[in-house]
Amino acid sequence: MESTPPVFYLIPGLGADERVFQFLHLRGEVHILRWLPPQTPTEPLAHYAARLAAAIPIKQACWLVGVSFGGVLALEVGRLRPLAQVVLISSLIGPEELPWLGRLARATGLYHLLPPQLLPRLPRVAQWFFGVRNGREYQLLRQILRDTDPAFTRWAIARLLQWPGQPAIPAIRIHGTTDRLLPAGAAASQYRLSGGHLIIISRATEISQILNSLVTEEASRLLAS
C-alpha cells in the first residue's frame, strides 16, 4: 500500500512570515499558517488559535511546526487538532520558561509600556538578541523587523505574557544552545543545536534533517503497529 506524503503546517514567529522557512527542505506537503489580524486588541489567544486551526482539517494527521511565538500558537492549535504532532523550534512549553525579564513584565504589566517599534529602530541590538550572523541572516532579520506590524506586535506580546500554558500537550522540541531570548528552552529540548534564537535560518539544514527523520520514524512505527 502506497503511503501518503506527510503534511506540514508551519507557523512563523512574532512579526515574521514565510521568509524564515525559505531554507528548509521538507519531504512532504508544506503549508504556511500565516498570521491573521487580531479581531480586537484583546482577542484571546485561544480564540485566535481556533481561527488559525480552521485551515487544518480536523481529521487530518499532520506535523504542526511553530517557531518562537508560533510555537505557542502551535500548542494552542494542537489542542484543537488531536491528530497533529507538534514540534516547537526556539519556543517555550509554558510561562515558567520565560526569561526573568519576561516574568517580571508578566507580573507587573509593564509590557504595556514597551514601544513595539523599538527593535526595528535598533537592528544591531536585535541582531545580538536573536543571535544572527552578518550577511544574509542579518539582512533577512532587518527586513522582517521593518515589515512587522506594531499593532500585531503589541497584541502578541500581551497574549504571550498572559498565556497560562496549561495543561501542556506533548511536543517535540528543537532549541539553540545560545538562545538569548528564551534560554531556558535548550535544557528541556530533545534536539539542541549550536546557535541562537533564529536557528530556523542558521541551522535550517539540520532542522530539515530532524523533521524529515521524525516523519520517517513515525511512518515506520505505524507500519510496524
Automatic annotation (TrEMBL):
Domain spans labelled AB hydrolase-1: 10-206
Top-level taxon of origin: Bacteria
One of the Pfam families matching this protein, by short name: Abhydrolase_6
InterPro entries to which the protein is assigned, alphabetical: AB_hydrolase_1, AB_hydrolase_fold
Transmembrane parts of this sequence: none
Gene3D superfamilies to which the protein is assigned, alphabetical: alpha/beta hydrolase
Protein name: AB hydrolase-1 domain-containing protein
Organism, scientific name: Hymenobacter antarcticus
